[in-house]
């Protein structure tokens, strides 16, 4: 069987790793990706050492059945990157990219895998993939693993001098920023944190503003302690079936917290405060709570990635709409920042170099820089860095033609909530573009789990 995989990021690495394991009936695999650093996907290309992985090693394995796969690969090298607060190594994302590359190279050596360094632009109904250079490649199965792409240009600043539309790799974009320039970063999520701490690591001494509508930062990781939930589990959701509602999930959470002697009301009060609490004060408190024995927030974060994918398609539409209205809060809980970055960010707030600017209404190119209108008035920035990642389900620009061809050829269909789903049994979609998922960005475990499921389906034929 011939399998075409479009996109050579972590999803593709997990796929070829599973498909070429000893004992598998090895298919003929062709992977398409024009990226200069194939197998690393969008986040894990070589970059500054200050650009770190966002999660501890047990959650960065591309093998769902071997959570230690990445930690074993890292071995003693991890000691140099130990985050004492988290109690685990957090390596530069470029080093994690080496893990992806080596895992892919082993699979290439073990099986019949070929990399075509070209962008796929079309696919026909009989699964003939066309690449940008006009070549055609016949296949029997197709897996779309194109990720979710680059930041959206919310304020139409593309091409304006001083505007950095796509910050990665920061090793390419930040050297152009004068050390004394005033920098406005659009967004206040993990990419914005990467930019702020990397500017500081490069010795930037001009003011840095984090611009957003609400000013909410990602929460801070708490030290993992291996505790496993008993009530709030994917199995419990499957048992509820059509009875799944937010209220039912809340009762599972309450049961879990009751068993631990913790109060759900405390967690809810803390989450409610996220929208109004001063970001630096909240950050300081959460740094103090990294090693807290309280499980509530760990539980909720874990549930976003384990329970929510099961629950999401079963939830009544009104509950899904409610969650979407609180998407910013949900994402900040589901994708927290690592403590080492939290500490760096807090020192920037404390020194007065960093400020959070909420209620941003407009950012326009003016006076040799940018004019920003926000809830507090008008301010100027010399440089604007766009750190707003597109929501899951967005079609990345390099895949736009291909996806359009798949939709037109009825190989795939749009999901009403965004993203696309296969409309032909020979087609699979893995990663954030897949419709029907919650609106949370998938981490490595989500992507690797989905890839392993696709691989099993492909092997079953
Ligand atoms: C900045 C950033 C940091 C992150 N950090 C972490 C982290 O530390 N830990 C974690 O668990 N998760 C992290 N994530 C989540 C991340 O989405 C996943 O870890 C992972 O990268 C998703 O893998 P993927 O293969 O689905 O997509 P991607 O990594 O986006 O890879 C998609 C690939 O498809 C290729 N492609 C696109 N269109 C075409 C086409 N038409 N033809 C051929 N190739 C194409 C692209 O060139 C790219 O190489 C991060 C995400 C971002 C954006």
TrEMBL record:
Alphabetically ordered keywords of this record: Coiled coil
Coiled-coil stretches noted in the UniProt entry, renumbered to this chain: 250-277
SUPFAM superfamilies: FAD/NAD(P)-binding domain (SSF51905)
Source organism superkingdom: Bacteria
FAD-dependent urate hydroxylase HpyO/Asp monooxygenase CreE-like FAD/NAD(P)-binding domain ranges (all copies): 4-148
Protein name (Swiss-Prot/TrEMBL): FAD-dependent urate hydroxylase HpyO/Asp monooxygenase CreE-like FAD/NAD(P)-binding domain-containing protein
């Amino acid at each position: 069987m011939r399998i075409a995989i479009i996109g050579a990021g972590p999803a593709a690495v997990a796929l070829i790793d599973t498909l070429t394991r000893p004992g598998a009936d090895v298919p003929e695999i062709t992977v398409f990706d024009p990226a200069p650093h194939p197998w690393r996907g969008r986040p894990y290309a070589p970059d500054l050492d200050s650009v770190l992985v966002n999660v501890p090693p047990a959650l960065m394995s591309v093998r769902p059945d071997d959570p230690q796969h990445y930690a074993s690969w890292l071995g003693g090298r991890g000691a140099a990157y130990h985050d004492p607060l988290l109690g685990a190594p957090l390596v530069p994302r470029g080093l994690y990219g080496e893990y992806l590359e080596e895992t892919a190279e082993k699979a290439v050596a073990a099986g019949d895998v070929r990399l075509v360094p070209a962008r796929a632009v079309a696919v026909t109904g009989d699964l003939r993939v066309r690449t940008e250079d006009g070549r055609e490649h016949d296949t029997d199965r197709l897996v779309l693993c194109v990720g979710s792409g680059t930041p959206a240009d919310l304020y139409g600043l593309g091409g304006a001098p001083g505007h950095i539309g796509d910050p990665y790799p920061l090793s390419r974009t930040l050297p152009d920023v004068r050390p004394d320039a005033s920098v406005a970063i659009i967004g206040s999520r993990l990419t914005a944190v990467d930019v702020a701490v990397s500017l500081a690591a490069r010795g930037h001494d001009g003011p840095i503003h984090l611009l957003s509508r609400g000013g909410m930062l990602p929460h801070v990781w708490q030290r993992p302690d291996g505790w496993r939930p008993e009530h709030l589990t994917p199995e419990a959701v499957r048992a509820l079936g059509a009875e799944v509602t937010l209220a039912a999930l809340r009762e599972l959470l309450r049961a879990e917290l009751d068993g631990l002697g913790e109060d759900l009301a405390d967690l809810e009060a803390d989450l409610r405060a996220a929208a109004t609490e001063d970001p630096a004060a909240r950050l300081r408190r959460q740094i103090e709570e990294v090693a807290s024995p309280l499980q509530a927030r760990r539980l909720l974060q874990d549930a976003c990635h384990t329970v929510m994918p099961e629950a999401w398609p079963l939830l009544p539409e009104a509950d899904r709409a409610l969650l979407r209205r609180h998407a910013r809060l949900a994402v900040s809980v589901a994708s927290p920042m690592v403590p080492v970055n939290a500490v760096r960010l807090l020192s920037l707030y404390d020194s007065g170099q960093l400020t959070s600017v909420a209620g941003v209404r407009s950012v326009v190119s003016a006076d040799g820089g940018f004019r920003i209108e926000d809830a507090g008035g008008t301010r100027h920035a010399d440089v604007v860095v766009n750190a707003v990642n597109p929501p899951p389900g967005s079609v990345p620009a390099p895949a736009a033609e291909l996806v359009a061809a798949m939709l037109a050829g009825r190989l795939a269909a749009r999901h009403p909530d965004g993203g696309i789903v296969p409309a032909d049994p020979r087609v699979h979609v893995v990663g954030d573009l897949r419709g029907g998922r919650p609106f949370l960005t998938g981490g490595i475990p989500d992507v690797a789990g989905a890839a392993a499921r696709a691989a099993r389906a492909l092997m079953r034929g």
